[in-house]
């Protein structure tokens, strides 16, 4: 019996099931749906969910594939900046410069060549609905963005974020729902 082969087949089956049943980023869902994810008799979680739903009306779920934080952060950041042309330009410049920066940091060029192909142009549309549709579609091909986020994060050093000039760089806030090992996005309205 080839246990390694069986393990590999089982792992591939699990990965395929996740891909088939979990979108990379869901549409906005009512936070009330969280109640169904936990046993009704689990009074601790049900109480926490009741408190959560008082403040947050919607949730966007992210695929639980090990990239949920990067995907949630990237999606949330772009979603909040759809109408902020200055921030989108800053993001475009970051993407354009990132390949060269990663090569300087020691990555081999062929491993980061797709970084410049990240395209935020589909988001430069006129209506909010089109923005979110374009962003959701962009999330379906977000592996390059996730790779970029992970590569950039892995190269960060300790940074002092206490300066007032940095406070503006992180506005508006992205709110995550963290459950052990997983991140989703929360929305007040």
UniProtKB/TrEMBL annotation:
Q: Where is the OTU domain?
A: 57-189
For this record, the Gene Ontology CC terms, alphabetical, are: nucleus
BP terms from Gene Ontology: protein K48-linked deubiquitination
Q: Which PROSITE patterns match?
A: OTU (PS50802)
Instruction: Tell me the SUPFAM superfamilies matching this sequence.
Output: Cysteine proteinases
Could you cite one Gene Ontology molecular function of this protein? ubiquitin binding
Q: Which domain of life is it from?
A: Eukaryota
Q: Which PANTHER family match?
A: UBIQUITIN THIOESTERASE OTUBAIN-LIKE, UBIQUITIN THIOLESTERASE PROTEIN OTUB
The name of this protein is OTU domain-containing protein
